[in-house]
Amino acid sequence: MRTKTEKSRITEQHFAAFYQLMMDNGDTNNADKLLEVYEKWGSSKLMIGFAGHFSAGKSSMIDYLLGTSVLPKSPIPTSANVVMIQSGHAGAHLYFDDGTIYTYEQPYNMENIKEHARTKGNVKKIGIHLQESTLPEGCTVIDTPGIDAADDADRLITESSLHLLDVLFYVMDYNHVQSEVNLQFLTKVQDYGIPVFIIINQIDKHNAKELAFEEFTKKIKQTFDQWKLSPEAIYYSSLTEQDLQENEISAIKSKLVSLMTTEKQEVYDIKRSVGQLKEEHKEYLQVMHEHELTSRGLQEAEAGENFSERMEYVNKAISELRAVPQQVEEAFMHELNTTLKNAYLMPAELREKARLFLEAQQKDFKIGLFGSKKKTEAERTKRSEDFLETLQKNMETSIRWKLRDKWTELLTHYQLQDPLLMEKVQNIAVSYDIGMLRDLIKPGAKITGDYVLVYTGDVTADVKQKFKQKALQLWELIDSKLKENLNQELVAYEAEWQKLEQTHQKQEALEMLEHHLSESCNELECVLNNPQPSAESLAKMNRALKTQYKEIDKPDVINAAPKPVDRPTKDIPDSQPEKKDTLPIDRLLDQLNEAMDILSGLPGFQTLIQDLSQKHERLRNRTYTVALFGAFSAGKSSFANALMGEYVLPSSPNPTTAVINRINPVNETNGHGTAVVTLKDKDVLKEDIVNLIRHFDVPDAMSLDELLRWIRKQHLHMHEDLAKTSKDFLHAVLEGYEEMCDSLAQEIAVPIDALKDYVTNEQKASFIASVDLYYDCPITRQGITLVDTPGADSVNARHTSVAFDYIKYADAIFYITYYNHAFAKADRDFLLQLGRVKESFQKDKMFFVMNASDLATDQTELDFVRGYIEEQLVTYGIRFPKLYAVSSKQSLDEKINGTPLNKEMAVFEAAFDHFIHEELTAITKHSAVRDMHRATEEVRHYMDALQWNEEEKEQFHASLKSKETSLKQLADELHAASYTQKISQKLEKQLYYVLERLSIRFHDLFKETFNPATFTDTGKGAMEQLEHCLQNLLNDTGYELMQELRAVSLRMESFIADIKQEVHHYYVRQSNDIDSAFMLPDAEAPELETPAYEQAFENLGAQTFQRELKLFKGTKAFFAKNEKEVMKEALYDRLYPYARQYIDDYHQLMQETYINQWNIIMQEMKQMIYHHVEGYRDRQIAMLTEQPVDIDILSEKYHTLETMLATYEGLES
I need a surface site. Which of 848, 945, 961, 1081 has the fewest CB within 10 A? Predict the structure, then answer.
């Protein structure tokens, strides 16, 4: 153990400076804790804490080590407050949340003090001073509430006292060492730097026949190594069997004494406590920082990589885009002006044609000396057209073509290849006519060489001007299209720029806040290194310490007589269950044989004999399936061994590798002690793996080998987001695959002594689908198959549907819970399902077994625990549970040693025997007796018929045909459709209430998933945890809905069975009016197929709930300000339509499934009625037509049958 610093390293100045800093920052919670550490520093008290799983015997351990009886001890959760025990003037102190303190001096009533320790009211902590104690002065022992995942309040209370501890003893229940709750808590304690001594208590539970103790300790060490836990020491103890060789209780006591005496200075560590609170204050500052970020909308302010470069790029892009229209216009006009400037429209040839054109336009122009007017006009026209045509060709080649090409190139460069625009460019042209040419001639101008130059210059200028006008019109179109094209891109960039600018501003604000956070954290380090508190700070801290609690008058409650604990008690009956109307099967079988012999040879009685034979076979060859359920380590295998009276089933050391074990009666193929191990095929194994890692974006279309390689490459088997059980399963598959891959999908027969290696070796067990063990023992000789199912907390998704099948089809269900284990989440989910379906079964086939009852110190404690479990079962909807307290270990030892069986196990076995051999067979026995009654009535009728004369026989024969017709017609009138509406209405109502219950259940599921224990990070880490919690909530809610639909199916199947009986009874009543001699056999219960259901919300993820997740403003606001309620309602509102759709989809499937099956039931019922009506007719005819039996012989047969029936009076009706 490392040496601790001296007290002088932490001074009063440190405390005052830290206290003032925490108060200035508003962290009153850690400031109050600091006051507690300051008080501890002032008294130099060594504080040793005891924590652990609630059922581990922690309080009993403290009382034993201190040699007193102070703390409440119970197999159910008790200590609800921190209890601080120290030596001194005898008294008790109750510290309340409101700052008041009650102090009691002896004599006071210790039982009422204990009751306060059990009560989670407003008591913050309890202090007990012992005058006569082994506790040295200056030492305090702290008892904390049990660590139980089902009650986070207890866990938080425990964690809130960690800052005071110098040493922690962590007490574990032998069966729950691998509990993740334990291991997570220890990891946190180790992170705090608190020395931990682990005590694995109750090792008297260990069964060396199942597992060598050395092997057990090795596995414990492996578990701690996997979690990187390094305790100071690991002790193994038992308070009930102190003479066990492995018991180290004396070493624990010696270590405790040594810590409080010789090692006290080494372990006393104020600096660690202050350092812990410093870190917790940093966490507080971080949380407040996150809250500030959220409230100011800065939680997404991180700019990311290349932010500055992006801002520069976007800014440049916007500037460039805004400049494009001007650039294009300048280029457009440049091309226009350049082209027009360089255009040579009037070469010498064209100028000559212009001169000729001008001459022809003169009034005195004529052809020849005496030229005719016609010839003159023809020449004038020719010269005009010749000039115009040549001018237009020059315009085309020197202007239009060049502008068209240059502008097309320009538009292409700026990606303006709009077809309409391109067409406008291609068709750019100036139309010129002779009139325009004439308009440019100056009136009175003399046609000279100089004027020709002037005129051609005017034409050139006019052409260019007209091209400019056309160009400006074209530019307006180009400019409009250009801006339209640029606008979309420009708007996008401007929007991005706005966001970037906002982010930039937020980033600056974020940097300021982070700088402030960094300064605050640095200030903490400065205080630790160089505290400089003001005198006022020191005084303020001391005033706060003195006024932290105010003593007030003592209430009477502590000194009053203790109130008796109001728990139901249940006496164990001295006799077996009362047997009402029981029919011994062996006697009934003999009498069925005798009845068949009596009827043999009678004409027409063959069908009756067949009916009796079928009942005989069913009773003689009866088989039963009994399914064992319960959480891992509840003792299912041990209980099965106790039932068989031999050590048969090995216990699996790990909940991840549990398989389905069936103990079957021996048969011709499989003899006693043979085990058949069925291995999973590749598809099933792949499905199991994918179900565990489905939230990790598993690539599609992978083979099993590829999937395993991918898992190993991604290190998923070590991923922190996976539960430990899932990681262990993946690890076992990866390690064992090479050895087991060639055996997949095979059945391997092994002797029983080789079975243990398959079941307990994780690297083999992970590949096993089931184990069938054929074993000859008293229970299997009764035709009973015991099915030891995986724990309710199995990681295998397929096991949930397997469990449902066993709930539905098993003849009996045993739910095993351990004496001092509370129901964990997996237990509660399973028990809720049992509660949903319990009333669907014709018989109450559920037996609840509280195992390890021998751990009770006395009958009062046993009744107390039994009452607690009954209360819990009722809350899960299991009314009037058949609950039995047994000790598997004790019962097995008694059976092996041949000593009398203990009363508790004897009562259970008697009740189970009565259920199996009386209640379950009652229906078949009742039906068999009714068939004997039918046969007796038929014999009596035969006797009557033998005395009829011919006329009476003829009359009966005539009426027989009429009755046959009427009986068949009555069957035809049983229309299936008349009942389908009842089925539809029942189904609709059942599904309606599923959604009603979901709205209530969602509250509990949200609370279980979203709690302070699941949020340990801040910032992005908290958001990731939030999404992880949401995924768990969706998974839990989806599973809940699937379980609800399965329960509805069982209720519907029970309802349909009742309707079938209703129809059958209706027919029996109506047929009796037609022919009282006709008796229909009892109806068989229908075997209905349940639809297959997929879990709801499998395809939903965090993306669907982004708006709701944004309601998260930080851990403090989420819990302290109750913002979680807002998110809960928002999540439910968003989820509800998906739940509604899920139920609607399956509503249609269930409707079709059950209506179709109902139609088949009705059809088969009509066929059955027809068969028996025709058999009755044939029997009556045979009695009238075949060789008659002697009346005396027949009378003797009748009286024999009647005498047999008399023993079953009241059962055959």
Answer: 961
